[in-house]
Amino acid sequence: MFEKVLIANRGEIALRIHRACKEMGIKTVAVHSTADRDAMHVRLADEAICIGKASSKDSYLNKPSIISAALVTGADAIHPGYGFLSENADFAEMIEEHGISFIGPSPKMIRLMGDKIEAKKTAIEIGLPTVPGSKGAVENVEKALEISNEIGYPVIIKASAGGGGKGMKVCYNNEDMTNNYFIARTEAKTNFTSDVVYIEKYLENPRHIEIQVLGDKFGHVVTLGERDCSLQRRNQKVLEESPSPALNKQERARISETVRQAMEKLGYFSAGTLEFLYENGEFYFMEMNTRLQVEHPVTEMVTGIDLVQEQIKVAAGLPLSFEQKDIRFEGFAIECRINAENPETFVPSPGKVKAWHVPGGLWVRVDSEVYAGYSIPPYYDSMIAKLIVFGRTRNSALMRLRRALQEFVADGIQTTIPLHQKIISTPDFIDGQYNIHWLEKKLLKES
């Protein structure tokens, strides 16, 4: 087992990793920017090293500085968390070249599943259901029109290296395609340095269902149920729950076993998540995230399995300590992503937190680095906390979440807590009747 792990991230996920390491008797090294010198995980870590200025490119995306910090402190492994360099194959390779273990999948796997076009080709080869679409990159508008008419409108243009809604355009006819094709490529080039795009059939009212997987280096893979991530704003997840209220027992078993077999065939190890669109009883593979997900706590709540500790054990060369038949799913879990933003305009609200009180009680979990007196920096993602609750039934989880949101105090800044209170009070959400467009079109009524 590792003796010292460097945490190459910030915020709540850095603290989450620190806690997992300490419970395993592993020392931690926190790297931080000048803006994060007062962060909670920096205060708690065994060692802390400043790796650059506030800008991400000068700190959390600075590969040489992070690896130098690991070498100076004698860390024998690096955990990348999520975001930043977590899915950067070059970073993973650099780490291994310096004799340090990367807590994640192999660089080859990151590279394979990180390219959406290659990931889709691979998905077809290993038996995953996919959305009808182009077989690869669409290099000109003429080809785009031809493919779109073969598939049938509506279709969506996607950036091959993209995510977060950038480089994505929905087209309902040839005129839309002609107008949006070049816009999508320009957005892709601007945001991801690659203007490669592809085309897929656009599903109009799907759910966003993802399957958590965990594999070791001995060929064993398990699936840990699904998460429903359909509540989204501008392709960014807002709230997640497990199990999904949209799936029945047979559908759940079918997609879980399909994914497990596919990942075994692929030879995948570490934690990973496969994301699907689900509509009319059918699943369509979208992409795979070869890392820990923001919403991993809901899976931990319903399975009782610590995903971060399992990641660390796998990276250290240990086999999974359980098989698929050993996993027990109990109850319901819901997670709210709480951002430092105006709950109506979504304008970021960084600044000093004057008062901070998180809810407690049975089966209530809050993942956050915030404390009273902490100044939220304006340089990074605005998510400041995750509130996760568990209940024996979905209704009991909802009632617990309602109570917990009422208890949550965050003075001095604006947060999206009121938005979550509004969401969970709507009949559609209470009944589980929502899709990926519901939040924007029905509750927020955005164009």
Low-confidence stretches: none
Q: How many structurally independent domains?
A: 3
Helix fraction by DSSP (H/I, runs of at least 4): 25-40%
CATH class of the largest domain: Alpha Beta
Beta-strand segment tally:
20
Q: How many helices does DSSP assign?
A: 15
| CATH architecture classification of the largest domain | 2-Layer Sandwich
User: What's the rounded overall pLDDT mean?
Assistant: 96
- The largest sheet has its strands arranged as 13-12-9-10-11-14-19-17
Structural category is alpha+beta
- CATH superfamily name of the largest domain? ATP-grasp fold, B domain
Which term fits the overall shape? globular
- Rg, nearest Å: 21 Å
Strand content: 25-35%
Note the gap between the termini.
52 Å
CATH T-level topology of the largest domain: D-amino Acid Aminotransferase, Chain A, domain 1
What is the makeup of the main sheet?
Answer: 8 strands, antiparallel
Write the layout of secondary structure elements.
Blueprint: E1 4-7, H1 11-23, E2 27-33, H2 40-44, E3 47-52, H3 63-73, E4 77-79, H4 89-97, E5 101-102, H5 107-114, H6 116-125, H7 141-151, E6 155-159, E7 169-171, H8 174-192, E8 197-201, E9 207-215, E10 221-233, E11 236-242, H9 249-266, E12 270-279, E13 282-289, H10 296-303, H11 307-315, E14 332-339, E15 351-352, E16 355-357, E17 364-368, E18 375-376, E19 383-391, H12 394-407, E20 409-411, H13 417-423, H14 427-430, H15 438-443
Parallel strand pairs: 1-2, 1-4, 2-3, 4-5
Antiparallel strand pairs: 6-7, 6-8, 9-10, 9-12, 10-11, 11-14, 12-13, 14-19, 15-18, 16-20, 17-19
Helix pairs in contact: 4-5, 7-8
